[in-house]
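Subject: for your reference before the review

Hello V.,

The reviewers asked for a structural picture of the protein, and I figured it would be easier to keep everything in one thread rather than splitting it across files. Below is the amino acid sequence we used in the manuscript, unchanged from the supplementary table.
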Amino acid sequence: MNGVFDQLTLSKEEKNQGDELLTQEKDIDETQGEINEAATPHGAVAQQYTLKQIKEVSQQLIKHGLIESAAKPGLYQAALTHNTKIKDILEPFNLDIKIDDIRGLIFVVVANHVTEEDDELWSHPLVRRQRLNMEQSLLIAILRQRFVTHELDAGVGDNSAVIHIDEILPELNAYLGDLGSETREDKRLRNLLEQLKAYGVVTDINEHEQITIRPLIAHIANPENLTNLLIAIKRKANKIPEETSS
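And here is what came back from the structure prediction:
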């Protein structure tokens, strides 16, 4: 047993030699690092880092369509700093970015997009235009009203518009009608929220049955159109009489 132990244990002299070798290697590495740093201009290093930031921001925007300062503060700041270069990268694809610095949001839009009157002219090789159905549009209108109310209370730029899904359900049912089952009504709402999550206007439902309304909802639709939608649905449900001419 002692023989095995002796074989596995370095002598004091061998250990000292090993320490000297490690010290020499460390000195060589540090010297080589200084040589490399001296050989590479600091401007080149900074430029490489800048190009990396621009690449990461562009990839994020193309993949997800937006960057929020609350979620990715580093990328958001880089996007602000290099927004001109990022616009240049997106320009050949007929894309552009919009900056909402008050709400801490940068999102991609189609450059020179057509109006609703020229809807038949819509064409983009990378962006497919998806129309929201009536239920999705209704829920966006409800959520946007809640978001506006939150900003009036907390101030524009406060992105903590948290709401419990039970607060949305009665209002949604008032427009769409009851399904005769709380379980079915709850499932309908959850399905709609899951669909809207893909548009970047709400977060996942958390463990407290809450969602956060994301700031993109302030830009996704014209408030006047959403108000008209709610009025039209109420009228369809015979909740508001048609205006009569005198």
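For the response letter, the relevant points are probably these. The two ends are 111 Å apart (CA to CA). The chain has nine helices and five strands.

Happy to draft the paragraph if you're swamped.

O.
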